[in-house]
Amino acid sequence: MAVKVTKAEKKASYDKKLCKLLDTYQQILIVGADNVGSNQLQMIRKGLRGDSIVLMGKNTMMKRSIRIHAEKTGNNAFLALIECLVGNVGLIFTKGDLKEVSDEVSKYKVGAPARVGLVAPIDVVVPPGNTGLDPSQTSFFQVLNIPTKINKGTVEIITPVEIIKKGEKVGSSESALLSKLLIKPFSYGLIVQSVYDNGSVFSPEVLELTDNDLVARFAAGLTNVVGLSMILDYPTLAAIPHMFINSYKNVLSFAIATEYSFPQAEKVKEYLKNPSKFAVAAPVAAAPSAKAKAAPAKEEKKEEPEEDEDDFAGGLFD
Questions:
Q1: What is the CATH number of the domain that holds 200?
Q2: Residues 39, 64 within the same domain
Q3: For the whole model, what pTM was predicted?
Q4: What gap in Å lies between CA 298 and CA 38, rounded to an integer?
Q5: What range does the domain containing 53 cover?
Q6: Which of 69, 145, 283, 300 has its CB surrounded by the most CB atoms within 10 Å?
Q7: Closest by CA position to 61, among listed 107, 26, 19, 116
Q8: Average pLDDT, the chain
């Protein structure tokens, strides 16, 4: 006989499990779970098995457990999770690479039909081509203003038509037509909404940044620091090399304009007095090859006029 577990015992068990996970894992993905079925969720759990754990639950219960655990442990970093628990969400605790875990989660998406009243997450376009439907079904296409023609006893769509726009609710006509065409326009799965890492919460777009992106952003920030330091004449580690170079330019300009000199300025002064001394001789042109020499000679030989043999013979004996 199975032992009946009360609601209080279930809540206590859930609270204990959540608190243990908070103490064990420092990285958490907050994921949206709209339209995700139990079978699909089981596949995701199986795919993440090893270094990640998926935990679903009511937001009120999760918020209460997190708040009480933060008070007991004195770790207020957990409180950053509370603001993320909005809507139908779940938590993925992981010790692996956040980018790899996020990519793994995105693989488990299942196609879904366009049900009536559902808000479309994407634009839905009916492609052109033969639908396989008999001519009696043309009323569906006429209601949605889809141009068609009868070809070999079946309805054929002439041009692609957008019948549902992103953010709009699916109507009964659109749902019936897509069902008849066996089109499942939507796909659903766990969607990463926020990322928690050691007390910091940030957008999942950060996971897409590469090393080159980070270097470029760091270089842009460093340029701003240098520019501000130079304007304010405030020395910083990034601006000191530029300040030294500018100071050297000023001293060099002063040495050129006056009799004052120093070893580094002597060469510059000498160059200004006699620039030709520092000129580099142009490279000697390569000698023409034997073939190049022979070619003009051959052409000259072809250009020699040919003597008329008949004129020459006649002139000799006349």
A1: 3.30.70.1730
A2: yes
A3: 0.61
A4: 90
A5: 7-109+189-208
A6: 69
A7: 19
A8: 82
